Amino acid sequence: MIEVIKGDITKVSADIIVNAANNTLLGGGGVDGAIHRAAGKAILEQCLHIRHGQGGCKTGEAVITTAGHLNARYIIHTVGPLYQDGHHREAALLAACYKNSLMLALRYAAHSIAFPNISTGIYGYPKQQAASIAIATVRAFLGEYTQIKKVLFVCYDQENFTLYSNLL
Ligand code: ADP
Prior knowledge:
CATH topology: Leucine Aminopeptidase, subunit E, domain 1
Structural class: alpha/beta
Number of domains: 1
CATH architecture: 3-Layer(aba) Sandwich
Pfam families: Macro (PF01661)
Number of strands: 6
Protein name: O-acetyl-ADP-ribose deacetylase (Regulator of RNase III), contains Macro domain
Radius of gyration: 14 Å
Domain Macro: 1-168
Bound molecules: adenosine-5'-diphosphate
Order of helices and strands: EEHHEEHEHEH
Helix content: 40-55%
InterPro entries: Macro_dom, Macro_dom-like
Strand content: 15-25%
Distance between the termini: 11 Å
CATH superfamily: Leucine Aminopeptidase, subunit E, domain 1
């Protein structure tokens, strides 16, 4: 049910592709930039609409748009925590990203979902800790809800790929 692959999440096929967005929902660097470039400008327009309605997205929360040119039905945009020192609720907020994305995926009747390694790029979350939190949160969710049949962790860098492979 849980798989790890190394590669570019914009090339992956799944009902839902998760984006590591920022609070503005306006796009940015890293995986966020890659997803917006590959999905097309209709996605940014939907993000702007959400932003006008609710003022962006809070850290740990998730919003949904269609997926444009990606091989997916929807993109879930979630905002990971900026890692400071581990004493600013980073772990709880990172777990909330995975949990809230999965809950939203359930509401949209998804069976498969692909996650990037949220917060482990520009936001500086220690990769080992982030991987443990991601896997534990997903496992707990899959134990409770059976609708989601496949969760893909898409690792862009070798370090994350090795960490996830070892943990799984
Ligand atoms: P954050 O601000 O949440 O740290 P980043 O985009 O900087 O977001 O990094 C999150 C993770 O996404 C990093 O591990 C980075 O290596 C990875 N990443 C960057 N580009 C891609 C991509 N095209 N597909 C999958 N993962 C990617």
